[in-house]
């Protein structure tokens, strides 16, 4: 369920409210507000509705010929309950989330921060130690810490919507994570001295099939309000994090079977590409695209960090 608030130029509130009603939303409130900073009056339109109707409304607004991110400000937030006469079965229907919700969430998870580096480093220590000891539970604990899934989604969503900044940001953060895992695993190998006991590497074909299935499930989960994503993230991390951990360990302890190095590196790139392609196909099927999102992306580029208030937020 979503509450969508739109600040529109004075006199345009009725137009926005009528658009909300046209997509099936039962009611929309229109009030006048004075905005400090720019020091002018704007119309404030607010609707409380189900997730799919919120998506229809926001997508329609951003595709409207009069919309631009400088004059129209959109805020979307999730709510726990909406009590009215529309019925809970309709109000709680969970799919699909507004496109800008997905975009903003992926941007939020794609920044390289000190917290991100520390979390990945801690995860790499657990993962590498689990691999050296061949302890599956410790490996699983490490994999749960690795936030690779949103980065893959950022690359696929950015490529599909042609938001190349998001795609590049996801790729840069993903590469940073791979490097941190490799270095952290090398440190564990240096401190423990090995040997590496883990040897359960799947075949290229099996890895490809798993990656395709995980990519589909991950993209669906990112546009759905129901369920938990942790196990999907674990499956994605198992396809992407074990190789750099193995590489870091092997760089210190030596490669037990040098003939397998190129095969495993190839599997890593194939799995990564499969996750990106599969999720992009799902985003295409869900129609997570349109002129409205292009307006949003264009507005973000034009205004940059200083114009963050002009960007829709969720």
Structure, described:
This protein is an alpha+beta fold and 314 residues long. Helices cover 61% and strands 10% of the residues. It has 13 helices and four strands. A four-stranded antiparallel beta sheet has the order 2-3-1-4. A hairpin with a 4-residue loop joins strand 2 and strand 3 (40-49).
Instruction: Label the overall shape.
Output: elongated
Main β-sheet, spatial strand arrangement: 2-3-1-4
Number of strands: 4
Termini separation: 12 Å
Low-confidence region ranges: 297-314
Binned, the helix content reads 55-70%
Task: Tell me the layout of helices and strands.
Blueprint: E1 2-9, H1 13-22, E2 29-35, E3 40-49, H2 51-63, E4 73-78, H3 88-91, H4 99-109, H5 114-133, H6 136-145, H7 149-161, H8 164-192, H9 204-222, H10 230-240, H11 242-253, H12 261-285, H13 291-303
Helix pairs in contact: 2-13, 4-7, 5-6, 5-8, 5-11, 7-8, 7-12, 8-11, 9-10, 9-12
Characteristics:
disordered C terminus, 4-stranded antiparallel sheet, 314 residues, single chain
At a glance:
With 314 residues, the chain is α+β, with helices and mostly antiparallel strands. The chain is built from 13 helices and four strands. The protein is elongated.
């Amino acid at each position: 369920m979503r509450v969508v608030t739109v600040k529109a130029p004075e006199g345009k509130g009725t137009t926005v409210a009528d658009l909300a009603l046209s997509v099936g939303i039962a009611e929309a409130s229109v009030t006048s507000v004075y905005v400090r900073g720019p020091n002018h009056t704007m119309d404030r339109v607010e609707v409380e509705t189900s997730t799919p109707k919120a998506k229809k409304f926001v997508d329609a607004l951003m595709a409207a010929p009069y919309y631009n991110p400088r004059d129209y400000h959109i805020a979307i937030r999730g709510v726990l309950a909406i009590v009215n006469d529309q019925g809970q079965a309709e109000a709680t229907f969970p799919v699909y989330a507004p496109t800008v919700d997905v975009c903003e969430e992926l941007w939020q998870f794609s920044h390289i921060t000190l917290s991100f580096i520390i979390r990945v480093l801690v995860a790499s220590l657990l993962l590498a130690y689990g691999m050296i000891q061949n302890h599956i539970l410790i490996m699983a604990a490490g994999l749960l810490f690795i936030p690779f899934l949103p980065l893959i989604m950022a690359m696929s969503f950015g490529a599909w919507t042609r938001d190349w900044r998001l795609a590049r940001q996801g790729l840069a953060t993903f590469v940073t994570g791979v490097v941190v895992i490799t270095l952290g695993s090398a440190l564990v190998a240096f401190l423990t001295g090995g040997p590496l006991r883990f040897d359960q590497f799947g075949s290229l074909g099996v890895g490809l099939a798993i990656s395709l299935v995980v990519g589909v499930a991950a993209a669906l989960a990112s546009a759905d309000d129901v369920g938990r994503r942790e196990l999907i993230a674990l499956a994605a991390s198992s396809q992407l994090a074990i190789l750099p951990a193995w590489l870091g360990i092997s760089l210190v302890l030596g490669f037990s079977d040098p003939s397998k190095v190129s095969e495993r590196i190839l599997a890593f790139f194939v799995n990564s590409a499969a996750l990106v392609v599969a999720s992009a196909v799902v985003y295409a099927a869900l129609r997570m695209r349109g002129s409205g999102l292009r307006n949003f992306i264009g507005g973000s580029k034009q205004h940059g960090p200083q114009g963050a208030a002009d960007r829709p937020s969720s």
